[in-house]
Write a structure and sequence with these properties.
By secondary structure, the protein is an alpha/beta fold. 55% of the residues lie in helices and 12% in strands. The protein contains nine helices and five strands; from the N terminus they run βαβααααββαααβα. It has a five-stranded parallel β-sheet with strand order 2-3-1-4-5, with helices on both faces. The chain is globular. Bound molecules: adenosine-5'-triphosphate. Adenosine-5'-triphosphate (ATP) is lined by residues 8, 10-16, 117, 144, 148, 179, 182-183, 186.
Length: 201
């Protein structure tokens, strides 16, 4: 089994590349954002710690996390954001480790892709065999985020500003997928990377 980490900053095209890897190469994709939501559910690995750390005020009557209220809190309070991350990230890591072990037990040849913007920052590198970075220039990402999320230039820029620079992430990457133009160019870029990757497997 090979576990590929797929990372990139906001709007770079991680989800798009993950979809292509699934549809065209048969990879099994695990999305860390989705797992982050799962671990905060009442049956999830982070739930009890979230309750202890934030108290009942941050939970709805049905027991689920009040996500808009939590988002509002951590947006304005970096200490609370760090606290939230210190609970969510290890829980996601645990969930990922279990999922990868289960997949390996059923299909040792399966190639698994773990997609997340924060693979490096949240210390997920240990569970990966290699890291791939999707790179798109800042101006391209800005336009994509504005179009996809319907937000202003300033709002899109604010989300981009908080991230580790792409050039820093590139130091950890086995492959860099450039995604500055259209989908057909991206597919060609991915095919080149895949040929090299498959040739070395
Ligand atoms: P985020 O970190 O915000 O989740 P992401 O890195 O997963 O972003 P995507 O959601 O894959 O990025 O892409 C951002 C937007 O840009 C999407 O609307 C996607 O359809 C579009 N996009 C990505 N790559 C291309 C491309 N090569 N050509 C045209 N549109 C693209």
């Amino acid at each position: 089994m090979t576990v590929i980490g797929l990372t990139g900053n906001i709007g770079s095209g991680k989800t798009t590349v993950g979809r292509l890897l699934h549809e065209e190469k048969g990879c099994l994709c695990l999305n860390a954002d989705e797992i982050g939501r799962l671990v905060a559910e009442p049956a999830g690995e982070a739930y009890r710690k979230l309750q202890e750390a934030f108290g009942a005020a941050y939970f709805l009557a049905d027991g689920r996390l009040d996500r808009p209220k939590m988002a509002e809190l951590v947006f304005h309070d970096t200490d609370k954001l760090a606290l939230l991350n210190s609970i969510i990230h290890p829980a996601v890591l645990l969930h990922l480790k279990r999922a990868i072990s289960e997949i390996a037990a059923h299909d040792p040849e399966q190639i698994v892709v773990v997609e997340a913007a924060l693979l490096i920052e949240a210390n997920y590198l240990d569970i990966l065999d290699q890291l791939w970075l999707v790179w798109a220039d800042d101006a391209v990402r800005l336009k994509r985020v504005m179009a996809r999320d319907g937000v202003s230039r300033e709002q899109a820029q604010a989300r981009m500003d908080n991230q580790m620079p792409q050039a820093e992430k590139a130091k950890y990457a086995r492959y860099i997928l450039h995604n500055n133009s259209g989908i057909e160019d991206l597919k060609r870029e991915l095919e080149d990377v895949w040929q090299d990757f498959a040739g070395k497997a």
